[in-house]
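Students often ask why we bother encoding 3D structure as a string. The short answer is that it lets us treat folding as translation between two languages. Here is a chain of 196 residues written in the first language.
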Amino acid sequence: MNEQQALQDLSYIKEIMRDSRKAFVDNGIGYIVWGIIIVLGLLSTYFFVIYDVEAYGLNWIILVTIGWIFSIVGAKKEREKKKAATFAEKILGAVWFSAGVAMTIIGFLGPISGAIRDVFISPVISIILGMAYFVSGFIYGAKWITLLSLGWWAGAILMFFWPGMQVFWIMIFMMISLQIIPGIILYKQAKAELAQ
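And here it is in the second language, the structure alphabet:
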């Protein structure tokens, strides 16, 4: 492939991305729902640990199952409503699906296998979320979403060097400020854009 052909291909890809961005609006509901699910899981686990209750794995199984059902049903409804997804929507779906699978594997199999201590699940998941937000912001063409990745990565570093019970509260703060609130912002933007 010569340099001219590579430049034309890159220009074509950029054009597809630009057109795709204009054609869809993310309503932020997924960010909000998953943020709330994870906050509930962290809070319940924290209190289970404090009060020495052995059932704290069950809360995660229930909550994550609810989250996956919500995501799968929501994606199916979107496909039925729109019929054809844009290129950007397909990439975003792939990014978040793969991040979700990776986080689910880490969260459940990491501790069971002994490969990841419980206290390090949140920082590892924060790294994955940072990557997903970085790519999402690039696809959205929204620098503020890309910059959220810096918060996820900084939080991961903090939790790696300061493991303990405070990891619950750090992750809860990050979920609210870097996931739920951005989801609310996206929701408001989507409503305003759809109203036009």
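Translate back mentally: DSSP finds seven helices and no strands in the chain. Keep this in mind for the problem set.
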